[in-house]
Structure formats: structure tokens, C-alpha cells
Amino acid sequence: MRRDNGNVSTNAEANVQHPLTGFELKAVLRESARDKTIFLHGKVSSGSENCNDAVIILEKTPFQMDTVSSLLKNDPELKLQLKNDIYGVYHLSPSPELNEIKTTVICPASEKHIKKYLQQEVYVIHETEDDYKAITLPYIESQSFSIQWVYNILEKKAEAERIVYENPDPTNGFVLIPDFKWNQKQVEDLYLIAICHQRGIRSLRDLTVDHLPLLKNILEEGKEAILKRYSIHGNKLRIYLHYQPSYYHLHVHFTVLGHDAPGSSVERAHLLCDVIQNIESNPQYYKTRTLTFALREDEALLKKFKELRDI
Amino acid sequence: MRRDNGNVSTNAEANVQHPLTGFELKAVLRESARDKTIFLHGKVSSGSENCNDAVIILEKTPFQMDTVSSLLKNDPELKLQLKNDIYGVYHLSPSPELNEIKTTVICPASEKHIKKYLQQEVYVIHETEDDYKAITLPYIESQSFSIQWVYNILEKKAEAERIVYENPDPTNGFVLIPDFKWNQKQVEDLYLIAICHQRGIRSLRDLTVDHLPLLKNILEEGKEAILKRYSIHGNKLRIYLHYQPSYYHLHVHFTVLGHDAPGSSVERAHLLCDVIQNIESNPQYYKTRTLTFALREDEALLKKFKELRDI
């Protein structure tokens, strides 16, 4: 089926209209400088009159081992950008066939397609102890976001067969389970979550010396269980909490170093070993300190901060 | 001085030897399909006979808002990959000037440079106060990695015209300059470095209350300078130090949220606002605490830890 499509379209290329005929840029929906991708909303006249909105996704292609030499041989054209000591930076203009751009065209594109790729602005928030009490805590208590799915896991009403390890202690125990983002097919992007049995620990902000036994169980037993099941040693793991978390029942993330899992960056992740150390040296650490995190434009909590603080 | 270099190299491109003359690929050191980067070890005949090893870093450049339209107008050449319903995937061959490759040449490259870019296993290290004194500090003091290029910048012997902002105070001043990783063409991957004028502050470990004025200057003046020059507000910035840093002269990283810059993950980055807060609440914080970071297999510091500790 897939091959048929390919053939039909390939043969047809000559006679059918160019997919970008009359292209006109309407908006840049999203852009990733790291991934070298850009998501565009454009108009093309190749669609039928009333539906020529298009989403166009451009992605620079990865380098290929077998052609990379050809880029550099025979004194290619280089524009000098800067020179300092042994370091030189240039811009190289490669021949097109060695430097293609993957181009995905969605046409006609619906409002939904366009929204799906639209970027959200992100803001840094510095949440003081008072901000937490006045803004974040009331927001958490008011929000209707159900965590029934978490309780279902803890009560074995769902995903029971996915559980990798459990310490059943109601106060200091937890369940270790693969994260949905991980397909469990390769350990290169291993991602598990430890969910504590004890209820009512919303986040980092609630943690005190009382929780040290729980936190240490998660750290030590979690590493052991992952070594046993996946043969990945604890010294290869990034073990951390999120603040803000995506749901307010205490859980800990286990991912492998070398895979930069989403949410592992410094403005959201807090290493469990640091959390334990901070509480041991100052029992009030997470109650009193200013915590910094990022919020997206469309997040309800950001709206609350904007109402009550100068963001 | 730097400008002279620039002119010489630019004008001279015809007469001086091409930096890649006689290029010969020896090994692919590392490759990232996500980042569209590749790190090569090659030989070039442009260096002097006995030192023509080179590390060459190729990186596809991010898309630019102002030129992206030109890639798609006037029916560019497209090779169809697949067509299914409203989705079409093509390979586009752009004209070279619209699709440059950033090319960094390090020549002559030492064993150390080549190792630095070689793909390696990664290990988590928990460095106690004693580990720092017994292992890391002696390592730093023994290592020969030159930071002449840093002094060149501080003394305006190189890159003087790239300086975005300077506070010239020898104790509490710094220079703000775009990082090599940023081509300065779009703010989506904005990346600047603040390098302090004061010498001898190796890293986070050396920071005390004496450095609070310097750190606060970098935080506040850095944000102002970036707002003025690039119209990016401070609440869109991730401002952090690395531990371990890649060179032991105190510097601070400024990157934009939404762009997950390499080195911004929790096992390496420390938010400047947290560093200030930690020192204010405990002047001995960075001297005494256990700091966690990741080291690659071939890093000399890891070898030292393996010799003296159970990793």
C-alpha cells in the first residue's frame, strides 16, 4: 500500500501540479533551533480553491557517514566567521544534493492541524514561599485534574502487569512502572516513574524530614530494581523530581544519562540526591526557598501568576 | 587585533591556504541525528607538517524566519518520498546560500581535543567536599588545558568587536559575548556567555559571599544587556553555571527557554538565581556540599575518581 502510493505519486510528479505552487508564508507556527526544524502555516494554490491552507514542516537532514567526506574535500567554499587561537568558525555552502531538507506538506490543513503545531510562549517564574501559599497552593486545591489513574495503578486496578517493582509499605513504599513515553524496546531511552503509596504529598514543597525514609527507599530500591530488570547500573541514571510536576501526587523520574529526556532540564528537574541532601541540611529547605520554573502561555497557573504578580 | 585577523583571513582566503586543504577523514568521533551535528577527526595539510590533526565540527544551521520563504517560493526542486491522503513528504534541494553548514575547525588538534568530542559512556559522580579536595582540585591544578583564548577575550586581543556588554570592574565586572555555538542569526537559539574579569575563580566550588556582588552583576546586567540588544526579556532566559565546567575560569551561560541547549540538563546546570540564594542562606554551601555531575568514559577526571573511589 505504502509502496503503491509512492509509485503513483512519483510517476505523476511530471504531470501533477507542484505541491508548493504559489506558496505564500502566513505564519511561523514553531521553530526549533536545536533540531533544525521549522513549522510554517502557508497558502498554496495547488489545493482546491476553498482549502489551500497548508502546514509545511521543514527539517534539515542528519549528516550521513558515507557522504560527509564529500562535503569537505576539494577546498569547498568557506566564509570566515571568526578566528581565535586554534579555533576557526566558517560557513560552508554545500552542493544541494549533499544537503537536502526534508519537507512535509499537509494540505489542505484544518484549523486543528495549524493549532497543533503552534508554539507557546514560555515564562520563568520565581515562586517565593508566599507565592506558593497565595497562588500555587490554592490553584492546586482548586484544580479538578483527576489523578484517579494514579490511584488505579497503586490499587492494581490498572496497569498491574506493567509494574516493575513495588515496596508495599503504605508510608514509605512506592510502585515503579515504565513511563508512557517509553516503548520499552531499547534501554537507550529508558524512562520509569516511581509513584509513592502515601497520599497527600503534592510536590517538592511538601517534603520534610518525615519523608526522608520514603525518598531514600525510592532512590536505592529504584536503582536496584532497574539494574535487575534492565541491567542498567545506577551510575548511568538521572533520578529526579519535577517542579512544577504534571500531577500533584509525589513521583520520581528515572531516565538514562545520554538521553536528554523532555523535562530533564535545570528549570524543571531536581535531582533526588540533591533533594535529600537539602532537606537533611535544612528541614525547611523546600518550604521556605524560592523555586524557579517555567510555565507555558496557555497554562492556568501562569494566568494566576500574571493576575497577582508582575511577570 | 581580532578584526585584523578577520580581514587577513577574509581577504586572504584566495592567497592563504584553505583550512581544509588535503582533507582526509580519519574517524567520525560523534554524531547526533537530532541536532544535525557531526564531529570528525581529520588530517589537513594546511597545518604545519608535524601538527595537522584537526577536529572538524559540522552543524546544519537553524532556519531563519527572514529567508525561509525563499526556500519554498518559485517551485523548488522536490523529490517525492511518500504521499498518503493529505500528507506528502519530499526532499528539497535548496540553493547553497540558503542552506549553509556551520563548520568549526580546530587545528592543530591535540589528543585532548579529539578525546573531548569522542562519543563516550557517561557516569554519574557524587563529589563530596573531600573528593573535591583529594581528586578534583589536584586534577584542575595539574591540567594543562590552556585558557589563553579566555584571556584574549578579556584583554580585547580577540573577538573584541563581538562583545555585547562589559562591566570593566576587575573584581565584580565581566564580559558578555555570544557563545561559539550560536550563529547570532536568530534569537530562537540565543546563547551568550558572561566571563568574569576576576581570575582564579575556578568554578562553583570557589564561590563564597565575597562573590555575591559579581554574581548579581552578571545576573542583572546580563539580562538588561540582552533585552537591549536582542529584545529578549529576562523572564525568557535560562541563566546558569556548569559543574563541571568545560574550562576553569568562572563563566555563566545565558540561553533562551524553549531551546534546550546542550548542557542545560539538571546533572550539569545550576541556575544562577539558585546559586545566589544557596550562598546567601549558607555561605559554605558550595564548599561543603556533595555535587553531582556526569563524566564521560575518557575524561581524565573520571579516571582519577575510578582510581581513588568506587564508581
From TrEMBL, chains A, B:
<feature type="binding site">
    <location>
        <position position="159"/>
    </location>
    <ligand>
        <name>substrate</name>
    </ligand>
</feature>
<dbReference type="GO" id="GO:0008380">
    <property type="term" value="P:RNA splicing"/>
</dbReference>
<comment type="subunit">
    <text>Homodimer. Associates with components of the exosome multienzyme ribonuclease complex, such as EXOSC3 and EXOSC4. Interacts with NDOR1.</text>
</comment>
<dbReference type="GO" id="GO:0005634">
    <property type="term" value="C:nucleus"/>
</dbReference>
<dbReference type="GO" id="GO:0000340">
    <property type="term" value="F:RNA 7-methylguanosine cap binding"/>
</dbReference>
<keyword id="KW-0378">Hydrolase</keyword>
<keyword id="KW-0539">Nucleus</keyword>
<feature type="binding site">
    <location>
        <position position="181"/>
    </location>
    <ligand>
        <name>substrate</name>
    </ligand>
</feature>
<feature type="binding site">
    <location>
        <position position="149"/>
    </location>
    <ligand>
        <name>substrate</name>
    </ligand>
</feature>
<dbReference type="Pfam" id="PF05652">
    <property type="entry name" value="DcpS"/>
</dbReference>
<keyword id="KW-0507">mRNA processing</keyword>
<keyword id="KW-0597">Phosphoprotein</keyword>
<dbReference type="GO" id="GO:0006397">
    <property type="term" value="P:mRNA processing"/>
</dbReference>
<feature type="binding site">
    <location>
        <position position="179"/>
    </location>
    <ligand>
        <name>substrate</name>
    </ligand>
</feature>
<feature type="binding site">
    <location>
        <begin position="242"/>
        <end position="253"/>
    </location>
    <ligand>
        <name>substrate</name>
    </ligand>
</feature>
<keyword id="KW-0963">Cytoplasm</keyword>
<dbReference type="InterPro" id="IPR011145">
    <property type="entry name" value="Scavenger_mRNA_decap_enz_N"/>
</dbReference>
<dbReference type="GO" id="GO:0000932">
    <property type="term" value="C:P-body"/>
</dbReference>
<comment type="function">
    <text>Decapping scavenger enzyme that catalyzes the cleavage of a residual cap structure following the degradation of mRNAs by the 3'-&gt;5' exosome-mediated mRNA decay pathway.</text>
</comment>
<dbReference type="GO" id="GO:0000290">
    <property type="term" value="P:deadenylation-dependent decapping of nuclear-transcribed mRNA"/>
</dbReference>
<dbReference type="GO" id="GO:0140932">
    <property type="term" value="F:5'-(N(7)-methyl 5'-triphosphoguanosine)-[mRNA] diphosphatase activity"/>
</dbReference>
<dbReference type="Pfam" id="PF11969">
    <property type="entry name" value="DcpS_C"/>
</dbReference>
<protein>
    <recommendedName>
        <fullName>m7GpppX diphosphatase</fullName>
        <ecNumber>3.6.1.59</ecNumber>
    </recommendedName>
</protein>
<feature type="active site" description="Nucleophile">
    <location>
        <position position="251"/>
    </location>
</feature>
<dbReference type="InterPro" id="IPR036265">
    <property type="entry name" value="HIT-like_sf"/>
</dbReference>
<comment type="similarity">
    <text>Belongs to the HIT family.</text>
</comment>
<keyword id="KW-0508">mRNA splicing</keyword>
<keyword id="KW-0007">Acetylation</keyword>
<dbReference type="InterPro" id="IPR008594">
    <property type="entry name" value="DcpS/DCS2"/>
</dbReference>
